[in-house]
TrEMBL record:
Keyword Transmembrane: yes
Keyword Transmembrane helix among UniProt keywords: yes
Transmembrane segments: 79-102, 122-144, 156-181, 193-218, 225-250, 262-284
Key words, A-Z: Membrane, Transmembrane, Transmembrane helix
Protein's name in the database: Uncharacterized protein
């Protein structure tokens, strides 16, 4: 568009605001269309030409905003994403709280009183851990599925790790079923050992998946504005482990330690950050560029 003066500079600035790859592909076509539009308007007078140039600049600015918005992950609800989000918000917090929160068990007792089951039954805790582990696996697999830019090898590795880590936690919890089986009472010590050996490494594997997926999500904005959520969950788990280790190192009585403010805050940061991650999955971000329409903007 041969537009000397301020209108030409505005046109150039508006063109520069378009995403680089969009400008490379469609820039020449936009210039030709703008030039033809101005020439046609010039035949109707200088005022029409100025009006056409202004409309072109405005249309380009609107196109730039639209294309930049499309480069970000577009968020929208669907049932699969909502299910994965709920699983993520519930699964890992359920497992963590079952081992470290009196408040959680108070909620379990209240639920048992309403529904009609005995919350002190020895099968309740391992059942909670098993259900939480399954939900955690669903959430982690959904998270990995969102990482569209990850290499196939990285995605496969993260999926396997998510399943293995969740299975280890679930099996560690299942070892507690031995307390409900009097015929294997002499093996309870062995079951406790197996459970402990599975739970610790299982949590570490889950933590590793969250960190690796979180780095990819943050770098590629795979979860849109909530791309930080996996690392937030990982951070809350690290904080919980640090607080727990410090508590054990000080030799504080277990009940006093678990009820202490540091432990309470660190425990409940896990569900808080898990809800953020669940919301990110429930909104089902579409990988950048998946919905970019391959059509020219109409500057006039």
């Amino acid at each position: 568009m041969s537009t000397p003066g301020i209108e030409g500079r505005l046109f150039g600035a508006a063109m520069l605001m378009l995403p680089g790859e969009f400008r490379s592909e469609y820039g020449e076509e936009i210039r030709v269309l703008a030039r033809d539009t101005v020439r046609e308007a010039q035949s109707q007078g200088a005022g029409s030409a100025r009006s056409a140039r202004r409309r072109i600049v405005v249309d380009l600015l609107l196109a730039a905003m639209r294309e930049h918005a499309r480069k970000e992950s577009v968020m929208h609800f669907n049932l699969a994403g909502l299910g994965a989000g709920i699983a993520t918000a519930i699964g890992l917090p359920m497992v963590i709280a079952s081992y470290s929160s009196y408040g959680f068990w108070g909620l379990v007792r209240q639920t048992g009183a309403v529904v009609g089951f005995d919350s002190s039954d020895v099968v309740v805790h391992p059942t909670i851990v098993l259900v939480g582990a399954v939900l955690t696996a669903i959430g982690l697999l959904a998270l990995v599925h969102r990482l569209a830019t990850a290499s196939p090898a990285a995605s496969s590795t993260l999926r396997i790790a998510a399943v293995v880590g969740s299975a280890m936690v679930g099996l560690g919890g299942a070892a507690m079923f031995a307390y409900a089986l009097p015929t294997v009472s002499e093996w309870r010590g062995a079951f406790d050992l197996v459970g402990g050996l599975l739970l610790g490494p299982g949590f570490l594997v889950i933590l590793a998946v969250l960190i690796a997926a979180g780095v990819i999500a943050l770098r590629t904005r795979a979860l849109g504005v909530l791309s930080f959520a996996p690392l937030a969950v990982a951070g809350s788990l690290v904080l919980l482990m640090v607080v727990a280790l410090l508590g054990f190192a000080t030799g504080m009585p277990m009940e006093a330690f678990v009820r202490g403010p540091a432990m309470v805050v660190s425990v409940w940061l896990v569900p808080a950050t898990s809800v953020l991650l669940g919301a990110a999955l429930a909104l089902t971000p579409i990988p950048s560029g998946a919905r970019v329409r391959r059509s020219e903007p109409r500057p006039a």
